Amino acid sequence: MGSFRKRKGLSQKALAVLIDHRDVTMISKYEHGVAVPRLRVGMKLELIFRTRLSMIFPAFSRQCEEELAIARSRLALSRA
User: Fold this and answer.
1) How high is the pLDDT of residue 77?
2) CA trace torsion 64, 60, 35, 38 (10° rounding)
3) Are 12 and 28 in contact (CB under 8 A)?
4) N or C: lower Cβ tally within 10 Å for the chain?
């Protein structure tokens, strides 16, 4: 996420203000992959950066894809 923020010319503090965070703590956590934002914040980030969340948080997106593949496999097995 940090690269998107920097390309937009935003400081962590400016981004925190735009997404209604009191300080930069969570911005730093998002950028380091320690935390993932809630849906409302994620939607704001999509609007600010004009790109999909899967591009902003690629590691989290891959994790979701893997979890979904496992769930689909279980579903297919239960129907067999």
Assistant:
1) 85
2) -60
3) yes
4) C
CA separation for the pair 29, 72 (Å, rounded): 31
Q: What is the pLDDT of residues 18-75, one digit of tens each?
A: 999 999 999 999 999 999 999 999 999 999 999 999 999 999 999 999 999 999 999 9
Q: Are 53 and 42 in contact (CB under 8 A)?
A: yes
The pLDDT-based confidence of 13 (bands split at 50, 70, 90) is very high
**H-helix or E-strand spanning residue 48:** helix 39-49
- Domains of the chain and CATH, by start: 2-79 (1.10.260.40)
Task: Dig out the tokens for 60 from the structure.
Answer: 């989290």
Cα dihedral 8, 40, 60, 68 sign = negative
With beta carbons less than 8 A apart as the criterion, state whether 2 and 45 touch: no
